[in-house]
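Help!! Second protein's tokens look totally different from the first
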Amino acid sequence: MNRKDLDPDESPLAAFGSHLRRLRDERGWTQEELADRIGCSATHISAIETGRRMPTLRFASSADRAFGTGEQFQRRARAARNTPWLEGFPEFVAHEGKASEIRLFELGIVPGLLQTPEYAAAITTGAVRRGMITEQQAHDRTALVAQRQAALQRSPAPLIYAVLDESCLRRVVGGPEVMAGQLDRIATFAELPNTIFQVAPYDLGERRAFDLPVTLLTLPDRTHLCYAESAHQGSLERESRYVLPLLTAYHQLQAEALSQAASVAMIEQLRKGTP
């Protein structure tokens, strides 16, 4: 059976998963047996052991009871959760790197997959100044943006649909020079054969389908996933009864948004400094 091996030095999340697997192997327990002892599913155990899911403090406490390790797993869980990533985001990124289709909607800022290094650095610098993240966490964020973009340079390339709220283009991040480079990057993105770019204009009003950033993934087996987040919480949804209505809403958003030609024309106007 193929097993994904984690480097425990890679991150606190990887260290937690690696430690959980090592203790389970030492006791000769299967994932199903450990799941019964903890009170969850074997799939959940697998996701944590491979770093695809963040362990909750409740899970860590149950693991400590199952292994008789005092508060060892609870301390590791606190370290793992002290990261710049929201709940569900690490697992989402793992799926994103394999997806055959990516549909994203963003407002306020340009999404990570389209960001220039300078734009990404400006966003994280602002977060550090506000005390939201540390310098190390800022470094981790910008590094992950580059890794996510590199993961898309594969064959066959995924089909990427990007609908950006008009605010993403008009909000100046990092100053005029950084923003000019970012607009150039989006225009280049729109020219790729595997991309569709659209702007959801301000006058869409109540017809805009989403009020929060949303990303919908279609995996090679045609499974659909949805990742959505607010300022303090992320959520990865797999159940089709929740994901399929969001997919329908995304199609409706595309129908209401500007065409790609009109969207690129808006970028050209902004590059020239015209409203």
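Here's the second one for comparison:
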Amino acid sequence: MRHLLATEGMDAATATAVLDTADQLKATLLGREVRKLPTLRGRTVVTVFYEASTRTRVSFEIAGKWMSADVVNVSASGSSVGKGESLRDTALTLAAAGADCVIVRHPASGAAHRLAGWLTEAGTSVVNAGDGMHEHPTQALLDAATLRERLGALDGRRVAIVGDVLHSRVARSNVHLLTALGAEVVLVAPPTLLPSGVDRWPVTVSHSLDAVLPTVDAVMMLRVQAERMHGGYFPSAREYSIAYGLSEARLGLLPEHAVVLHPGPMLRGMEIASAVADSPRAAITEQVANGVHVRMAVLYHLLAHEEEMA
């Protein structure tokens, strides 16, 4: 891999290779008093976040440090971006300073692809940590890793993705990745929170959460992205919760083996009840833990080449 920009177009073999590497890294670190591998010693990883983040940014930083890379964090508010520097000039500056990999989150869809175009010649890899409403590939990979851990193989499994699909890069990346891995995806949302052209996606669509829950192996609740909404997409938070929130009663509709996911941050009481989020059926903290190992695996495939895991 040269860059990781999207799950669209990613084949099952590539995705499985990354997931298998994440499993190997997790097993390698298990029981170690010092969680440190020398794999990326001498490499420099730079995170550039133009949007707020906790899970993604921290897990990339931990992933890099656990693999002995030098990790540098750049926030837009504390950099020359605040003085008007362009994305291109920021990218070229980081490459010239010695960055082997730039991990970028940006509010504009396609920003990571533009960065990759500018940095490929410099030999700098780019990882998309979320670009607008487009994609968030490492989130989809860690979701797949968590589902594999709980359910085994994903081929033939049925996964419901519920809520604000319209504004969700997580939903888009998961649709591409899960279907590539052989899962069936059903989107559950009000019509106002479904993107145009969804009928061309390899999914089924439902507006009834209660009807779908008994038929799935996993349910992924999405965050309602109020910061991207301009206008009324649903009458009120209470009505949204009644129709599309995962309550304790709805948890009982799921098959016994089914797992609950959420990319976070959660709006407890609206998208998901606290009792559900904290129940053994939920794998939300496991998603975060797996996110570190998956992002280690991504950095390994981008930067380690033939070096050994040890």
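Reply: Different proteins will give different token patterns, so don't panic. The chain has a mean pLDDT of 92.
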